[in-house]
């Protein structure tokens, strides 16, 4: 009995150790209700020793113990799968003597061998499973795509490394949470639950794109492929989301769309004023004419040119010019109706299309309103700028049946408005086209006039109060090979429009200095005045041009006077003052021409180094046989103001003796006009100065400037 007890103790300790080493989840040995307490402990399927049956390579070998005189039977085999205690063989415990001991030892040895083999197989299985898990984890973590593993209820089981980096969350932080609570905004939760239900119910993967919240940052936009891993029986086991972060791609696409829209806008709008450009406004004009033809209406086309805008650009710079253009655009937009289109054609030209007009008279009302809008001064930075507009108008269908012809005719009308003195509007007249053709030809011919020495200077005398010549004004003339003498009023506007006025002005300055020096060599000393255009004065090197003209002809500066209009000086008083101070410091005299037609501001006169005011001929013309106080009030005021400021006063356009006597009566210092002499060629001047000419027979001497 003692041998039996020892054997049983060893066997059960072995079984306990084996059970303790069993993997988690394997049930501990328990007795069946119908088992004999003293009967077999365990049998696995069949025992090769007791029953002679064979075992498979993965079957455990168990030992069946029985009381003396009793062998393992059917009930022993029935307890197999619950205990799974591995041993080597089954042996009767009542074997006598050493045979029993040997049998028991053999049994224990075989059991130990079987136990070690079983443990080795289990460890190998666990190692293989662990390797598979590690390999799967490594694949998931090194994958560039985002992977989310869910259970069928939508709870997060696993995030791979890419997903953790993209979302700013780790698996440990979100495991067990519902995926929509973690990744999507509340308003999308219901849709997310519905999507999961459809995925589980269906048999095919789904493709979806939605935002995924990022911890502490902006949401990421992710394109997901969603699928289900199912059990052999078809029940869902795991849900897998595999996603691609498309945030940058979406951002790039959005930027591309924005860039395309911006380029399309820029292609049809002016960058300075944001108004439609030539392309867009021409499109609107075509659309308007088509609609007007169908409805029997008129369309007004207005070409608007900002007067003297080039002077602003040249004197104040393009930034100020751009700001002025923007303010002008706002003024014109305030006049335009909602259905009208205002655009900038380029430079200082605007165009307005007014569709749906009932008559030509309605187009005239629109032109008048546009002119009125330009009257008030423009405040641009520190500058108060005055400007006006010249407007050319054509009307559909009378002046053209298509957009191209309407624009061409409006442009021709604009040129006529500018030629008539600016600050006015002019409707298209068929006769305008002939004038435009002549203007184009003249511009082309004028370019050759300088090179061919077709330009020359004529000189009109200026007399003092005693009728003696105090100086001359140099006036350009064009001796055309076919047309003869072309007056300045005809070719100077063309020169200004074409930009030729600057080189022509420089030539006039040099030629006047040369001729004045030539007269001095004849012992004839007289001051000569030269008119300076706004574009010429705006040149940064204008002062240097004056100096070069004097130096190249060895002419003393006191014999030269330059004349500028007051509107020119008002464009930029500070810049004008600086230039005039430099020029006047050399001894050159400064005069304001056509005074009274512009702003006539006492304030700017005090700031500028002015020597002479020349009263415009339009005021002198008003002096008749019995001039009224209202007609002469401006001239009296100008003369009084100039005398108060210590300036000389000269009246232009004197043609009658009545005018001369009146001007002498108010104290003017000099006069100029056809009463004394028209402009004469340079060859006539010596005779006028020496008294040989009938014009100056009363003069006994030449007035030499101090």
Map the helices and strands.
Elements: H1 2-21, H2 48-51, H3 74-78, H4 80-83, H5 97-142, E1 146-150, E2 156-159, H6 161-167, H7 171-174, H8 179-183, H9 189-201, E3 206-212, E4 220-230, E5 236-245, H10 247-268, H11 278-295, E6 298-306, H12 309-316, H13 318-335, E7 341-346, E8 349-357, H14 360-373, E9 378-380, E10 383-385, E11 389-396, H15 403-419, E12 425-427, H16 430-449, E13 455-464, E14 469-480, E15 484-486, H17 488-498, H18 501-520, E16 528-531, H19 534-538, H20 542-552, E17 560-565, H21 566-570, H22 573-584, E18 589-595, H23 602-607, E19 612-615, H24 617-620, H25 629-644, E20 648-651, H26 657-665, E21 670-671, E22 680-681, H27 685-690
Parallel strand pairs: 11-12, 14-16, 16-17, 17-18, 18-19, 19-20, 20-21
Antiparallel strand pairs: 1-2, 1-5, 3-4, 4-5, 6-8, 6-11, 7-8, 9-10, 13-14, 13-21, 13-22, 14-15
Helix pairs in contact: 1-5, 12-13, 13-14, 15-16, 16-17, 18-20, 20-22
Walk me through this protein's architecture:
With 706 residues, the protein is an alpha/beta fold. It folds into 4 domains: 2-123, no CATH class; 143-250, PAS domain (Beta-Lactamase); 269-428, Alpha-Beta Plaits; 449-696, EAL domain (TIM Barrel), CATH 3.20.20.450. Helix content is 47%, strand content 19%. It has 27 helices and 22 strands. The strands form 4 sheets. An 8-stranded mixed β-barrel has the order 13-14-16-17-18-19-20-21. Helix 1 runs parallel beside helix 5 (97-142).
């Amino acid at each position: 009995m003692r041998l039996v007890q020892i054997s049983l103790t060893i066997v059960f300790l072995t079984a306990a150790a084996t059970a303790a080493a069993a993997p988690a989840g394997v049930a501990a040995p328990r007795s069946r209700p119908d088992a004999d307490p003293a009967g077999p402990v365990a049998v696995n399927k069949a025992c090769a020793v007791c029953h002679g049956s064979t075992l498979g390579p993965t079957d455990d070998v168990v030992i069946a113990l029985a009381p003396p005189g009793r062998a393992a039977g059917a009930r022993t085999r029935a307890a197999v799968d619950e205990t799974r205690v591995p041993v080597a063989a089954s042996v009767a415990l009542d074997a006598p003597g050493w045979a029993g001991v040997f049998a028991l030892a053999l049994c224990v040895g075989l059991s130990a061998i079987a136990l070690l083999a079983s443990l080795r197989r289990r460890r190998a299985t666990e190692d293989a499973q662990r390797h598979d898990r590690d390999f799967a984890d490594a694949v998931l973590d090194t994958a560039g795509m985002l992977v989310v593993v869910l259970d069928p209820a939508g709870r997060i089981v696993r995030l791979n490394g890419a997903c953790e980096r993209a979302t700013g969350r780790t698996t440990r932080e979100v495991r067990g949470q519902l995926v929509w609570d973690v990744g999507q905004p509340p308003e999308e939760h219901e849709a997310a639950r519905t999507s999961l239900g459809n995925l589980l119910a269906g048999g095919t993967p789904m493709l979806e794109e939605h935002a995924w919240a990022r911890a502490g940052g902006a949401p990421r936009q992710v394109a997901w492929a969603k699928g289900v891993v199912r059990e052999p029986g078809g029940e869902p086991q795991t849900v897998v989301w595999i996603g691609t972060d498309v945030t940058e791609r979406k951002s790039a696409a959005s930027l591309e769309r924005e860039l395309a829209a911006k380029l399309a806008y820029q292609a049809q709008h002016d960058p300075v004023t944001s108004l439609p450009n030539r392309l867009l406004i021409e499109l609107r004009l075509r659309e308007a004419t088509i609609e007007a033809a169908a409805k029997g209406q008129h369309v007004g086309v207005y070409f608007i040119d900002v007067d003297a805008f080039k002077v602003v650009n040249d004197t104040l710079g393009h930034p100020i010019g751009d700001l002025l253009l923007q303010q002008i655009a706002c003024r014109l937009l305030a006049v335009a109706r909602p259905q009208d289109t205002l655009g900038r054609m380029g430079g200082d030209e605007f165009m307005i299309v007014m569709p749906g007009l009932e008559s030509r008279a309605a187009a005239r009302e629109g032109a008048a309103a546009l002119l009125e809008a330009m009257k008030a001064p423009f405040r641009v930075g520190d500058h108060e700028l005055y400007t006006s507009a010249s407007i050319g108008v054509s009307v559909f269908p009378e002046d053209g049946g298509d957009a191209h012809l309407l624009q061409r005719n409006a442009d021709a009308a604009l040129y006529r408005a500018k030629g008539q003195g600016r600050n006015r509007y002019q409707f298209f007249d068929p006769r305008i086209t002939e004038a435009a053709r002549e203007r184009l030809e003249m511009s082309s011919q004028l370019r050759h006039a300088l090179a061919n020495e077709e330009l020359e200077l004529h000189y009109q005398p200026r007399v003092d109060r005693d009728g003696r010549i105090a100086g001359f004004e140099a006036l350009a003339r064009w001796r055309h090979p076919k047309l003869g003498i072309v007056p300045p009023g005809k070719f100077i506007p063309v020169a200004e429009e074409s930009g030729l006025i600057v080189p022509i002005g420089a030539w006039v300055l040099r030629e006047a200095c040369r001729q004045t020096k030539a007269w001095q060599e004849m012992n004839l000393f007289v001051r000569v005045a030269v008119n300076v255009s706004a574009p010429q004065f705006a040149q940064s090197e204008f002062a240097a041009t004056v100096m070069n003209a004097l130096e190249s002809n060895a002419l003393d500066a006191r014999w030269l006077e330059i004349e500028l209009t007051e509107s020119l000086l008002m464009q930029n008083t500070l810049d004008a003052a600086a230039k005039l101070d430099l020029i006047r410091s050399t001894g050159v005299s400064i005069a304001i021409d056509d005074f009274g037609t512009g702003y006539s501001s006492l304030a700017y006169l005090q700031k500028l180094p002015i020597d002479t005011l020349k009263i415009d001929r339009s005021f002198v013309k008003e002096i008749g046989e019995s001039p009224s106080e209202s007609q002469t009030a401006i001239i009296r005021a100008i003369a009084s103001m100039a005398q108060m400021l210590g300036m000389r006063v000269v009246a232009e356009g004197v043609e009658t003796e009545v005018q001369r006597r009146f001007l002498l009566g108010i104290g003017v210092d000099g006069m100029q006009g056809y009463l004394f002499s028209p402009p004469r060629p340079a060859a006539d001047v010596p005779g006028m100065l020496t008294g040989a000419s009938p014009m100056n027979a009363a003069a006994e001497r030449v007035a030499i400037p101090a």
